[in-house]
Write a structure and sequence with these properties.
alpha/beta, three-stranded parallel beta sheet, 17 strands, 29% helix
Length: 486
């Protein structure tokens, strides 16, 4: 009875301890929410009502204004409704006087549909000119899938984007990050816009963009501050990075040119390079040494072959100069049946590598039929003898990671070769295959349980101990720690 009395005698403020927190703490909570949820908090409590307008970092994302669950596909009428709501939100946050400090970073994601940009553009421009916004992250989104985009669609999208920037030049001056989708810039001087007008641009993301007709895109921007360049499904004849002195990271996901897809000249700051491609049947392969011949600062290199043929030509000592500072090498999407000993040659060329990361590709959902072979060709296992190139330098390799491990002969032979060569090796981390929704759809059992025993990840301590025993057999002095992950 006494307990019940205490329960009813709680002070009102005890019932909302969250609202008793300071503004700084509450703002950090609101900053992790989308804008619509942040604004709704004012309905629940007057204590929260003013807080969304005090956020120093603000995200206004058109997708937050779509119905839940999102319609699929997202049609024009859905975009229209989302942009109508986004425009109201932008006016609410950007048009009113701001008594507190400026918005240090505005992340704006919008659709260029109907005439909403005629309202959004002036709002953002005025906020920039008045000092309300210091830094802008802009994404102009297009929901069309690349396969559904024709050249006229991409030219039309480029015209819309160019019109937006031409009407609101202040936006360009404040841009630090820009994301564009489905654009053909054959008739648009995008180089001038990105590297002459966008003086503060540091991060550029392009998805399904090209220069028209498989033309090459040459970048020469000695005054650019660009540090990150990401390309996805961009059908360029070639990417020629002539001069980008601040560039630190480049990621190119999928190209269709059959020969060397990119080249570098002046990129003294380049530290991370990610190349991801599922090679078509006409891909001839290229020499990585040719691509990296003018780079000497790359520390992190990722090559992802997505389960098809290896699109680099195997080299050894030719790579030594470019690999001089390499600290981490990741080889992903390696078809499960491929021999792995060719990787030893890369490790010999880069004795400075500390972490070697491998991901094995095994997808029962992909049927190896004639249709697949016509598009991608036959999967031919790379062949390279370990003795073809051997560096005289001591390896600094301390950790090997394998995702998609199984006690197959190819993997066991490779790991034994690494253990025998890497005197500084401390740890081997063995993980299961990454999950795949399509693989899971074709059967009720987990994918690893549907695979042949020799391709399955060892489950339980007994299987894992047996795998370790097989691995270090005839290596009684092996002190490498072998651990199993997920």
């Amino acid at each position: 009875m006494e307990l019940n009395n205490n329960k009813h005698n709680h002070k009102p403020e005890d019932e909302d301890r969250l609202s008793m927190l300071t503004d700084d703490i509450l703002l950090s909570i609101l900053g992790a929410l989308d804008i619509t949820t942040s604004v709704r908090t004012g309905i629940l409590s007057t204590r929260w009502k003013h807080l969304p307008w005090l956020l120093r970092e603000l995200t206004i994302d058109c997708k937050d204004f779509l119905s839940i669950p999102h319609p699929n596909p997202i049609e024009v009428e859905h975009m229209d409704k989302a942009m109508a709501s986004l425009t109201k939100a932008a006016r609410s946050f950007l048009a009113v006087p701001r008594s507190e400090a400026a918005i240090t970073r505005l992340q704006l994601k919008l659709y260029l549909v109907n005439n909403y940009s005629d309202v959004i553009g002036p709002l953002v421009s005025q906020a920039i000119d008045s000092g309300k916004v210091e830094d802008l992250d802009l994404a102009i989104i297009d929901e069309k899938l690349p396969d559904d985009c024709y050249n006229e669609d991409m030219v039309r999208q480029a015209h819309s984007v160019d019109g937006f920037f031409s009407a609101h030049p202040s936006v360009l001056h404040c841009l630090s990050r820009l994301s564009l989708y489905n654009i053909c810039f054959s008739d648009w001087d995008i180089h001038h816009l990105l590297f002459d007008c966008c003086k503060q641009l540091k991060h550029l993301y392009l998805s399904n963009c090209d220069a028209g007709g498989l033309s090459a895109w040459k970048i020469h921007a000695p005054d650019s501050k660009l540090t990150v360049l990401e390309l996805r499904l961009c059908c360029l004849g070639k990417l020629e990075v002539s001069c980008l002195p601040k560039l630190e990271r480049l990621c190119w996901d999928s190209w269709i040119c059959p020969y060397t897809p990119l080249s570098f000249d002046v990129v003294p700051s380049l530290k991370e390079l990610n190349l991801i491609c599922i090679a078509m049947v006409d891909h001839q392969g290229f020499k990585l040494s040719k691509v990296l011949k003018d780079t000497t600062s790359v520390e992190n290199l990722t090559l992802n072959f997505q389960g098809e043929k290896i699109w680099i030509k195997l080299e050894g000592k030719q790579l030594c100069t470019a690999f001089n500072k390499l600290r981490k090498l990741s080889l992903h999407g390696i078809f499960v049946e491929f021999d792995l000993l060719w990787m030893i040659v890369l490790l010999e060329a880069a004795p400075t590598i500390g972490i070697f990361d491998i991901e094995i590709w095994e997808h029962p959902c992909i049927v190896d039929n004639e249709e697949r072979r016509q598009i991608f060709g036959d999967r031919t296992s790379p062949s390279c003898k370990v003795s073809e190139f051997k560096s005289c330098k001591e390896w600094l390799l301390r950790e090997v990671q394998i995702t998609g491990f199984s006690p197959m002969e190819q993997q066991m032979v490779f790991l034994r070769a690494v253990i025998g060569r890497a005197t500084n090796l401390q740890r081997i981390v063995l993980n299961d295959y990454q999950t795949c929704d399509y693989c899971d759809e074709i059967g009720a059992l987990p994918r690893s349980e549907r695979l042949p025993a020799e391709r399955a990840f060892p489950k339980g301590k007994c299987e894992q101990d047996l795998a370790v025993e097989q691995l270090i057999r005839d290596m009684p002095e092996c002190n490498v720690k072998i651990t199993f992950g997920n």
